[in-house]
């Protein structure tokens, strides 16, 4: 860490409206070892940084600071990655947004933790939750047409870098990339005999996945619902298991043999 970086973190410790007798006192407040005051190059670098980031009066060896800019800037992150920049969230200077998809909270001087929900990332600001991709777009991407939604260009909803985002209309978002195809595949997998899926051919891969789904739900076949049950409930539980498995077999158009005899890689 350079002396400039050190002062960005610790420079707010310099007191204003207070006469320091000498540099030794200032170094002490900054947590710097006294020996640096006697080291030519270090002393010059530290003094240069202090002078550039404060307003002060000087009488002999005494210093009086009227303004400390470090109290205004030291609350910002010092661990930015190469190419990463931050901007204040519109109308809220307590939060800064990174073009890499990170959110900085001035109040705690740290990046906000992000949590996943429906494959997208959220942060908490106050008592509310906000989508990270929307905060990044609102901060960095102009929206002259007032488009309501934000699209992930690579279709990865966890990639919230600004170069992966764009403002779109609802229609543009719905028709983007492989979304329609993925919806069709999901419908075919979950509801093979409903709507436009009825009667369509099913690939071996999808059939195997459906069989595995049933097998995972009922690994012991008809006896799956008997686990942990009392003897008096065995008959009823078996009937329920049989009924449920038959429903799934009918839904997925697959045989019992294909479910409980196949091996999966």
Architecture overview:
It is built from ten helices and twelve strands. It is of the alpha+beta class and 265 residues long. A four-stranded antiparallel beta sheet has the order 4-5-6-7, with helices on one face. A three-stranded antiparallel beta sheet has the order 1-3-2. A three-stranded antiparallel beta sheet has the order 8-9-10. The longest helix has 19 residues, at 234-252. The relative contact order is 0.06. Residues 195-200 have low confidence and may be disordered.
Major beta sheet, strand line-up:
4-5-6-7
What class, by secondary structure content? alpha+beta
Number of helical segments? Answer: 10
- Helix amount: 25-40%
Cα-atom Rg, whole angstroms? Answer: 31 Å
The run of helices and strands is: HEHHEEHEEEEEEEHEEHHHHH
Would you tell me the overall average pLDDT?
79
Low-confidence stretches: 195-200
Beta strand %: 15-25%
């Amino acid at each position: 860490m350079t002396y400039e970086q050190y002062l960005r973190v610790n420079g707010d410790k310099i007191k204003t409206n207070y006469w320091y007798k000498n540099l030794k006192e200032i170094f002490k407040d900054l947590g710097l070892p006294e020996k640096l005051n006697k080291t030519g190059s270090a002393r010059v670098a530290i003094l240069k940084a202090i002078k550039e980031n404060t307003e002060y009066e000087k009488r002999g060896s005494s210093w009086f600071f009227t303004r400390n800019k470090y109290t205004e800037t030291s609350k910002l992150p010092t661990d930015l990655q190469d190419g990463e920049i931050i901007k204040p969230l519109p109308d809220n200077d307590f939060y800064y947004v990174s073009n890499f998809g990170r959110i900085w909270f001035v109040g705690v001087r740290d990046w906000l933790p992000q949590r996943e929900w429906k494959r997208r990332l959220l942060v908490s600001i106050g008592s509310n939750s906000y989508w990270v991709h929307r905060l990044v777009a609102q901060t960095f991407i102009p929206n002259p047409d007032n488009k309501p939604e934000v699209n992930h260009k690579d279709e990865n909803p966890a990639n919230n870098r600004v170069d992966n985002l764009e403002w779109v209309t609802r229609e543009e978002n719905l028709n983007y990339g492989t979304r329609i195809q993925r919806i069709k595949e999901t419908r075919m997998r979950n509801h093979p005999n409903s709507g436009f899926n009825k009667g369509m051919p099913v690939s071996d891969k999808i059939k195997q996945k459906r069989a595995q789904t049933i097998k995972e739900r009922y690994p012991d076949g008809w006896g799956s619902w008997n686990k942990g049950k009392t003897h008096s409930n065995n008959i009823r539980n078996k009937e329920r298991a049989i009924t449920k498995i038959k429903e799934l077999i009918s839904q997925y158009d697959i045989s019992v043999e294909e479910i409980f005899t196949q091996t999966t890689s």
